[in-house]
Amino acid sequence: MHKFLKICFALSLNFTFFGFLNIAHAQTVAITIDDGPNLEQTPRLSPEQRNQAMLKALARHGVTAALFVTADYAAKQPAGYALAKAWGDAGHAVGNHSMSHPDLHSDKVSLAQYQQEILDCDAIISTLPGYQKWYRYTYLREGNTPEKRDGMRSFLKQNNYRNAYVSLDTSDWRLNEKLVEVLGKNPQADVSAIKRAYLAHVRQRAEAYRALSWQLQGRDIPQVMLMHHNLINALWLDDVLAQFKDMGWKFTTPAAAFSDPVYQLIPDRLASGQSLLLSMGRILGLGKYPGGERLVDDGDFEIEQLKQQGL
User: Fold this and answer.
1) How would residue 15 be classed by pLDDT, with cut points 50, 70 and 90?
2) How far apart are CA 293 and CA 274, in angstroms?
3) pTM value?
């Protein structure tokens, strides 16, 4: 049996036993924010207001999160660097998300170019409080050829980077696009329907990924959730966090979540990436499961519902 499959099945058996022992314990989730900060102008809130709104929401709920910086978006400039520094000053971790967010699967992006983007970003963010040698792959794509995939794995190991895996992926970016579109036409528009759709989207994804963790590991793993530094979270991150509490979930830190053995696994797929749980499921030949089709639809379900409501 393939080495990764052996590891998966061994872990699954062990965790099934311990999972039942700890079944009364609450599901935990770590909050991670990608693509931030940025200096893009958006309706209703300035870049500084968006940044502060997210930090206030996290503080209100006692959450220690991680910001994964794409330096070209802001941090390479003094104003953007100050926004990123505010995260470290508030006790949050700061990780690397490249300089310009290139796609490793693109034929126009070489392995060497991609690696240089990480080093260039590190030169900026390594001076920030809260800095960690964590790398979050752009688009969660880890290489569509063995050369890129294995080259990146060697690069991360040689440079002491942790692969900052995601287990609970969302399409908040898609709903954010809709939000900006609607408010761009009318800054005073009623966007309550988008808020409801977003909260429902996060709940569905959380429940589906939790179910997937039970199928693959026989237990609740500490979920690492991917969100983005954008307007939708500046407006409603507080509501997202409150919803998790209402669901009975507890918050953990990214560092604590990454210490779980599941985040030591290395999926052996030709084009590895996406949610770690999805990648594991595909290797193990997992078929259809409730809610599974929604995990890869990029928010199509919610966008279609919003269209039916005239948005």
Assistant:
1) very low
2) 14
3) 0.91
